[in-house]
């Protein structure tokens, strides 16, 4: 186990994130605290950080140091970005941090900042090719990766705080002239990045401004599940959020659900950047990553002690294993359920009772691993807890709609509950629900065939038996629990076949 603290000293906010890594449950966030510092505003025309800004920073760092001590953090890694990077008195700031609070601040370059954002994204989102953007307070980092390998990166000399300072001083957030000037400046800056134009790939957005845009959109459409990581919008959606922000009076901004109070005056500039980037890239999707600089840096630090900790090509698999470990699902239990579910589905396909595509098999296999996960909380209400936990958990490497499909399969109890849970989102038609009912039925039956968790099933096969079917289960050990449960649950398989099913247990 390793426990570290990351302090992200940005131009707009200073944030402390405490991480714990174990090989079983992966990288977990223990605490996340931020405070608005607006350090960029303490830089004068000559880029000298004012004494007030330095004192504010040191007070925040001292407080974060005390919090980290209470959590038993082994290492604190403070990193500074644009505001400190641009300060001509940066050496004085670093010396005072060391002498007054014994903290070594690392000032990272724009290229390093871009790299850590990319590093976090490719390890938590499944897209193989994309442009990433991270708008900070004083700089904007862009990368392009292909097959998950970094190809290009750049740090541009503007952020939401600097845009606000350049164009909105003494003006309302939606001042028409300021918005026009911002748009022209941003487009010119983005066009100067020659490798960016017409990439025709998704854009993956990182950082607080991006999260706010996503949350505003989710609130405006009453999005039914939690989380912005992996949330996807298109150009029309971005325009809708921009129109909402532009059309809202300054005094009413606090009434917009999803908008953080400390970002209300700087959110429109970031919206302009996102729209402009979408058009220049000719993007086909705008997706949000909750993971960025801090997570990318944390992964790099953890990897020094645990080289195999993170695999950018097995994101979903690793995230699912970590989730199952969180809820104490034994690895062998999950694997056995996967094996049995695959055998049952194959036998049903052999007799043309079902026809599953590759994606359906993939979801069923993974749902088998975490089937009835909610029994960890309450066995009697396992289905309800399973659906809620999975549909609202941050599972890396999977789109939100498939996350809900996974939740519906892993929580399957009967048709009534399936339809009840599915109404929560309203995302699935009758054909989808029929397919998930068949897959859920297979999982419930597979679970019954290893209900004792003693791994008795060695093999199984289906045969015709008069007007019905017979499933022969070869076992080793004592099948008493499995015999009882399969008799109770075979009705689910009978509905798929529309035939009676006899289950015979034969000693292997």
From TrEMBL:
<dbReference type="InterPro" id="IPR003695">
    <property type="entry name" value="Ppx_GppA_N"/>
</dbReference>
<feature type="domain" description="Ppx/GppA phosphatase N-terminal">
    <location>
        <begin position="27"/>
        <end position="302"/>
    </location>
</feature>
<dbReference type="InterPro" id="IPR048950">
    <property type="entry name" value="Ppx_GppA_C"/>
</dbReference>
<dbReference type="GO" id="GO:0004309">
    <property type="term" value="F:exopolyphosphatase activity"/>
</dbReference>
<dbReference type="Pfam" id="PF21447">
    <property type="entry name" value="Ppx-GppA_III"/>
</dbReference>
<dbReference type="Pfam" id="PF02541">
    <property type="entry name" value="Ppx-GppA"/>
</dbReference>
<dbReference type="InterPro" id="IPR043129">
    <property type="entry name" value="ATPase_NBD"/>
</dbReference>
<feature type="domain" description="Ppx/GppA phosphatase C-terminal">
    <location>
        <begin position="319"/>
        <end position="474"/>
    </location>
</feature>
<protein>
    <recommendedName>
        <fullName>exopolyphosphatase</fullName>
        <ecNumber>3.6.1.11</ecNumber>
    </recommendedName>
</protein>
<dbReference type="InterPro" id="IPR050273">
    <property type="entry name" value="GppA/Ppx_hydrolase"/>
</dbReference>
<comment type="similarity">
    <text>Belongs to the GppA/Ppx family.</text>
</comment>
<keyword id="KW-0378">Hydrolase</keyword>
<dbReference type="InterPro" id="IPR022371">
    <property type="entry name" value="Exopolyphosphatase"/>
</dbReference>
């Amino acid at each position: 186990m390793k426990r570290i603290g990351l302090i992200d000293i940005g131009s707009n906010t200073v944030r402390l994130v405490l991480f714990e890594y174990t090989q079983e449950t992966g990288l977990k966030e223990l605490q996340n605290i931020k405070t608005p510092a607006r350090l960029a505003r303490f830089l004068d025309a000559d880029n000298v950080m004012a004494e007030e800004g330095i004192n504010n920073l040191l007070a925040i760092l001292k407080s974060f140091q005390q919090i980290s001590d209470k959590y038993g953090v082994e290492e604190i890694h403070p990193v500074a970005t644009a505001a400190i990077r641009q300060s001509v008195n940066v050496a004085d700031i670093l010396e005072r941090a060391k002498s007054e609070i014994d903290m070594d601040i690392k000032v990272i370059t724009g290229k390093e900042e871009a790299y850590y954002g990319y590093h976090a994204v490719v390890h938590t989102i499944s897209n193989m090719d994309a442009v990433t953007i991270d708008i900070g307070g004083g700089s904007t980092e862009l990368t392009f990766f292909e097959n998950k390998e970094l190809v290009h990166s750049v740090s541009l000399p503007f952020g939401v705080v600097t845009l606000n300072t350049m164009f909105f001083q003494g003006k309302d957030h939606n001042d028409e002239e300021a918005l026009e000037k911002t748009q022209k400046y941003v487009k010119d800056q983005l066009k100067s990045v020659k490798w960016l134009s017409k990439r025709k790939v998704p854009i993956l957005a990182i950082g607080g401004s991006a999260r706010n845009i996503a949350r505003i959109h989710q609130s405006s459409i009453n999005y039914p599940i939690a989380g912005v990581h992996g949330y996807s919008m298109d150009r029309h959606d971005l325009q809708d959020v921009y129109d909402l922000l532009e059309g809202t009076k300054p005094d009413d901004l606090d009434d917009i659900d999803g908008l953080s109070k400390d970002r209300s005056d700087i959110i429109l500039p970031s919206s302009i950047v996102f729209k402009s980037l979408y058009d220049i890239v000719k993007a086909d999707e705008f997706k949000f990553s909750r993971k960025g600089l801090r997570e990318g840096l944390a992964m790099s630090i953890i990897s020094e002690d645990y080289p195999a900790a993170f695999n950018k090509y097995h994101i979903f698999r690793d995230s699912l294993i970590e989730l199952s470990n969180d809820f104490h699902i034994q690895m062998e239990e999950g694997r056995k359920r996967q094996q049995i579910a695959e055998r049952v589905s194959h036998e049903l396909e052999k007799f043309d009772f079902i026809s599953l595509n590759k994606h359906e098999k993939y979801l069923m296999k993974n749902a088998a691993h975490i089937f009835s996960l909610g029994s960890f909380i309450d066995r009697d209400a396992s289905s309800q807890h399973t659906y809620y936990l999975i549909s609202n958990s941050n599972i890396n490497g999977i789109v939100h709609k498939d996350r809900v499909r996974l939740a519906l399969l892993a929580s399957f109890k009967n048709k009534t509950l399936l339809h009840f849970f599915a109404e929560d989102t309203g995302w699935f038609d009758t054909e989808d629900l029929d397919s998930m009912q068949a897959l859920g039925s297979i999982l419930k039956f597979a679970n019954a065939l290893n209900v004792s968790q003693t791994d008795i099933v060695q093999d199984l096969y289906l045969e015709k038996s008069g007007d019905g079917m017979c499933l022969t289960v070869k076992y080793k050990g004592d099948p008493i629990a499995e015999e009882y449960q399969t008799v109770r649950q075979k009705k689910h398989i009978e509905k798929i076949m529309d035939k009676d099913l006899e289950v015979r247990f034969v000693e292997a």
